[in-house]
Amino acid sequence: MRSRIRKPPAPLDEDALYNYAVKLLGQQMRTEADVKRLLRRRIEPGETGAAKLDAVIASLKERRYLDDTGYAQDYAKLRQENASFGRRRVQQDLMRKGVQAEVIAKTLDAAYEGVGEEELARRHLERKRVRKPANEKEAARVARLLMRAGFSTGTIVRILKKWDVDDSALAELETAETDEDESRA
What we know:
Layout: H1 14-27, H2 32-40, H3 47-62, H4 68-81, H5 87-96, H6 101-111, H7 117-127, H8 136-148, H9 153-162, H10 167-184
């Protein structure tokens, strides 16, 4: 069986590159880094390709088709309201998408101002239909679920304490919390 090797797409001129970028943005919201990554496959290598890419990106920004700040604000709002994700998870997702650290910090400060992390974590558990853990293994599963959702260890411990989870399981989590705090310092 022969494998098919894909031929790279033909390089696009500046107008075609702009139209391709608009088409990409029409399909879904994208960050500047994401659009650049997708457009790089459609330009010729070298300085002329890079100049075309920069011109297209500048034109998209000028027309406000490309706005990382607006993208980050919408993304954080949707993740907080619909998925009930914690601040850390949204921060990691935005970093992975190529949004600048300063934009992320400002956006998250505004989005999570006045939002109780514990209440958000409880909403997340409710959304996932998680019940009170009956044993240590289930408590660890709940803790991992909340960590993946971006909640702090302190919040997780408080929720599990209110559920009267076994003290040995909580001690392990609190140890992990102090290790986490030391690694940040």
